[in-house]
Amino acid sequence: MRVARLHGIEDVRLSEEDVPVPGPGESLVRVEAVGLCGSDLHWFGQGGIGDAVVERPVVPGHELAGTAVTGPHEGRLVAVDPAIPCGRCALCREGHRNLCPTVQFSGHGTLDGGLRQFMAWPTDLLTPLPEGMTAADGAVLEPLGVALHAWDLSHARAGATVAVVGCGPLGLLLVQLALACGAARVIAVEALEHRRAAARRCGAGTVLAPDEARDPAVWQRIAGDGCDVSFEVCGSDETVRTALLAARPGARVLLVGIPDDDRSSFPAGLARRKGLTLVLVRRMKEMHARTVGLVASGRIDVRSVVSATHSLDDAPRAFAAAVARQGLKIVIDPQRP
Question: Chain-wide mean pLDDT for the chain?
Fold first, then answer.
């Protein structure tokens, strides 16, 4: 089978390898869609995330779906949950599988991910998709799950005014999700014009460029005391500051983005005077059943965030395009010739 491995910074190499043999409790999956995530770009561009670094050539990819070749879902299109928690620690037992200290994660560390034609994966982490959904739809369920986890942590109420700072694919899903969950209004901030246009298509009522969003008077004019909930989805200090500016006193600010240098800083006085609650978002919990329901019901349009599909042989160029923030979500189809 064809495989793409990351050997180091900006070093993706293609090779031929044996098809994996499923172990006990695993199914073989024919991988048909892998989305490139912001965290994949950290692995590609910096060789890791924080203290997690590329220790050996690893197959990236954790937003994925394909067809089960063996097991109880044989012949069905399935979404793959990329996290394998231990299921036994106190955090897992309390329902915080995303915080499991020994979790294994697809495409991170030493666990090979989805940029290959076949993968063996725990059967209980495969979710069959309903008719009408495509493999690319299934791949986008993972970032939608992260957005849904962030929404749960926000404690947002119906009728809320919501700010989304950063309108890459995850931010665009948050725009849609906020409206689907009863937000009265979404204000989006984005540096790139084509992503500002996408935010408008997703339903954002007001869309700001960063220079506008840096001005406290702009927020006072368009949101009065500020937004009830503010999501930061870029990871830079500047966008964190913007998210704080957007928030009303007493609001929650959700830090979803991953910073390049593993550090985030913010104006402490601004956050303190407003009495803000800052919440950091770590991956997702068991979200696939809910995300499938949101997509199947038409409340969330995952296809709207997919802008290009590449073959596995074109993986290096796909990574480069994603790093350059071309389009929206870039998907790789390992089966495409």
Answer: 92
Rounded to whole angstroms, the Cα distance separating 337 from 207 reads 39
The span from the CA of 290 to the CA of 288, in Å, is: 5
The Cα–Cα gap between 270 and 276 comes to 9
For residues 53 and 46, give the distance between their C-alpha atoms in angstroms, rounded to a whole number. Answer: 9
Q: Give the list of residues 6+ apart from residue 117 with CB closer than 8 angstroms, or none.
A: 1, 2, 3, 19, 30, 31, 312, 334, 335
Structure tokens, 15: 């090779």
- State the Cα–Cα distance between residues 82 and 57, nearest whole angstrom: 18
Task: Say whether pTM exceeds 0.70.
Answer: yes
Mean pLDDT over 324-336 rounds to 92
| Contact (CB, 8 A) for 66 and 80 | yes
> Helices 38-46 and 315-323: crossing angle, nearest 10°?
100
Question: What is the C-alpha to C-alpha distance for residues 297 and 42, in angstroms, rounded to an integer?
Answer: 33
Instruction: Pinpoint the alpha helices (H) of the chain.
Output: 38-46, 90-93, 135-154, 169-180, 193-201, 210-213, 216-223, 237-246, 268-274, 288-296, 315-323
Judge residue 63's burial from the number of C-beta atoms within 10 Å of its C-beta, 0-12 exposed, 13-18 middle, 19 or more buried. Answer: buried
pLDDT digits 0-9 by tens, 117-148: 999 999 999 999 999 999 999 999 999 999 99
pLDDT reading at 164 higher than 80: yes
Strands 306-311 and 126-128, bridge-based pairing? unpaired
Is residue 50 pLDDT above 70, yes or no?
no
